[in-house]
Specification:
Layout: H1 16-27, H2 32-41, E1 49-53, H3 59-66, E2 70-75, H4 79-89, H5 91-94, H6 97-100, E3 103-106, E4 120-129, H7 139-146, E5 150-161, H8 169-180, H9 196-203, E6 207-215, E7 218-220, H10 223-231, H11 237-242, H12 245-256, E8 266-268, E9 271-278
Parallel strand pairs: 1-2, 1-4, 2-3, 4-5
Antiparallel strand pairs: 5-9, 6-9, 7-8
Length: 280
């Protein structure tokens, strides 16, 4: 759940390896219902040759590989997450024929080109857009760069946040915007718009071919897990660059309080949207 271009300003002072682990162990699983819905709808299986853009630590790829797909993941932003993806998909660790065909590439789509391999028939960009201003910048170019690697009519999947009134986490993300720029509290946050995904697809030269909505509640064992998980998304980078960790953690805990249940767990209902488009 990161924007496709890095935030402006100084880099936040964080332990990137620890944050990658928090993402893989706490936060990434929140989008499992989205991955499952897309894989089921597109009948991902042994005939699927999938290219995952912004693959991060590779959970969506692992799920597709478990269905028999041959998967390739690319990402140019988070080497720590890519290292975790390689651990998950190492053929010697699992012995699976499908996973043996898996590739994890640091870079862009062009770095995943393989003249000896068949063209991809599915591309995923599961990084949800629609909660930060400018978080779709660069995505259309990324998709356009992937298109030459696909066969004609290949499925391309984009993901986005649902309407703020159906995403409890929206209220928490406003905290990040306020801390990043106290004088313009809403400058970094914006509500998802109905046609966000369609506009990106159009700019990339893709043809929309269906969409859907999926409930993806964010559930955590306790408040501290919620804080760690949300900070691992990179959506708080600008806030961490403008304020210290103590302040960010304090305000996050306060924002999470309405979603804390009697047993101490934190539960935030959310809806995400996906768009299926086709390459020309």
């Amino acid at each position: 759940m990161r924007p496709h271009l890095p935030h402006a300003g100084p880099a936040p002072r964080v332990d990137q390896c620890a944050r990658a682990r928090d993402w893989a162990e706490i936060q990434e699983r929140m989008l499992v219902p989205l991955y499952e819905a897309v894989h089921e709808r597109l009948d991902v299986g042994s005939g699927t040759r999938l290219l995952g853009l912004g693959c991060g630590s590779g959970l969506a790829l692992l799920m597709a590989a478990s269905r028999g797909a041959a998967v390739t993941g690319v990402d140019c932003r988070a080497p720590e997450r890519l290292a975790l993806a390689r651990e998950r998909l190492l053929p010697q660790a699992y012995g699976s024929r499908a996973r043996a065909a898996a590739r994890i590439v640091e870079g862009g789509p062009e770095d995943a080109a393989d003249p000896q391999a068949p063209a991809y028939n599915m591309v995923t960009a599961f990084e949800p857009i629609g909660c930060l201003a400018g978080d779709s910048e660069g995505l259309a170019d990324l998709l356009a760069a992937a298109t030459p690697l696909t066969e004609r009519g290949a499925a391309v999947v984009l993901a986005g946040w649902g309407p703020p009134e159906r995403c409890a986490t929206s209220s928490v993300l406003r905290v990040a915007a306020r801390l990043a720029d106290p004088l313009r509290a809403s400058a970094g946050w914006r509500p998802a718009l109905r046609d966000d995904l369609e506009e990106v697809a159009q700019r990339a030269g893709l043809r929309p071919d269906g969409s859907g909505r999926v409930a993806c509640p964010f559930g955590y064992a306790d408040t501290e897990s919620a804080v760690r998980g949300l900070k691992s998304t990179d959506l708080f980078d600008a806030a961490l660059a403008a304020a210290d960790h103590v302040q960010v953690d304090k305000e996050l805990r306060e924002a999470l309080h309405p979603y804390r249940r009697k047993d101490g767990t934190v539960w935030m209902p959310n809806v995400f949207r996906y768009l299926i488009a086709r390459t020309p």
